[in-house]
Amino acid sequence: xxxxxxxxxxxxxxxxxxxxxxxxxxxxxxxxxxxxxxxxxxxxxxxxxxxxxxxxxxxxxxxxxxxxxxxxxxxxxxxxxxxxxxxxxxxxxxxxxxxxxxxxxxxxxxxxxxxxxxxxxxxxxxxxxxxxxxxxxxxxxxxxxxxxxxxxxxxxxxxxxxxxxxxxxxxxxxxxxxxxxxxxxxxxxxxxxxxxxxxxxxxxx
Length: 205
Description:
This protein is of the alpha/beta class. Helix content is about 40%, strand content about 20%.
């Protein structure tokens, strides 16, 4: 029995490595062809993905909206957190990534579109209640005004106190706090991610 268990664990480990390698290759190819829309050369590591997912409470009513899911690293962490795929809507600009995560996570709602046009994307998808917004968008590749406009759209869709979750590798926040509109919390450096990153959490005031 021990031999069989060790064999099964080894097979499962090999599958995880193969899946991660495949995702890394997809990301690298996409980054090489579209560096400003992909924003990273590899998917979020599992420690970063788990830190982002940990901010979301699966008991909150409504849909969790994921922006720029890529190959689904954060999507997987949200599902492991206890969120059913049917309560997740992913807005992905890259059609190849959209097709990949649609096949990887049966039941997941996937919309191919521009996440920076969030209000239109939610309306098109028929989403009326939003529990949280989880973003892996490369915000620093966009002008400050466009980043702020995205946050404005997210806050309009979110109930007070619910989070807009964003990671970045930078020392400064992608969008500054505006106490009259939204608050901002930042987590510690996740040094086991490559490169190290932090999670910024915005909440509607």
